[in-house]
Amino acid sequence: MSNSATEPTSTTASSPTSASNPIEIVACGALAAHVREIAARRGWPVIVRPLPAALHNHPQNIRPYSERLVMTPQAPNSRTILAYADCGTYGALDNLAKERGVQRLPGLHCYDLYAGEAVIAQLLTEEPGTYLLTDYLIKSWDKAVIKPLGLDRHPDLWSDYFAHYTRLVWLAQAATSELERAASKIAGQFNLPLTRIDTATTGLEAALAHVIEPPP
Questions:
Q1: Among 6, 41, 68, 113, which residue's Cβ finds the most Cβ atoms within 10 Å?
Q2: Does the 23-108+202-212 domain belong in CATH 3.40.50?
Q3: Tens digits of residue pLDDT in 91-125
Q4: With DSSP H G I counted as helix, E B as strand and the rest as coil, what are the percentages for the chain, rounded to 5?
Q5: What's the whole-model pTM score?
Q6: Where are the domains of the chain?
């Protein structure tokens, strides 16, 4: 997973900001590809600066990593946005945003940005033992989950991590047959049923638009 910055996305004449005053988006690595795609489609002049998605395994490090990029902008006169939900920082990202005068996206977790907070809350209320998957997590399952937890070396630890889960819910941004097969394989590892909810990236796009093109 890269943590290098991208070039500013091309803009259009109708963009709310100009290429000379770009927006720098410090993004969770799990969201960065979608952020780039949305920005390119909307013609937003942004620089996406992704951080490793693996920080979710160590949420106490999300703030210091984010602050490092916030404090070292790549472009003069740029405005910074944190493309993170709270993500287990227990308010640390909100404190950073307040202290440094930046904005972050809403929600407790990135799942909220895809499906909406109400849907996620309902899923977890209906069945607290719900494990949530996204397209990114399915694609990077071995790298993001299996290896960091040591399950490739100690598969006997599986029940220690996952025994309390009772179902899997795949929040699908763009379902494909390849992802279907990979998701089914993961469900087989859990030996649990898999439910798919097609979310697309509409919620993430709306959250980005709210901070990039704030209403008058």
A1: 113
A2: yes
A3: 999 999 999 999 999 999 999 999 999 999 999 99
A4: 45, 15, 40
A5: 0.85
A6: 23-108+202-212, 111-198
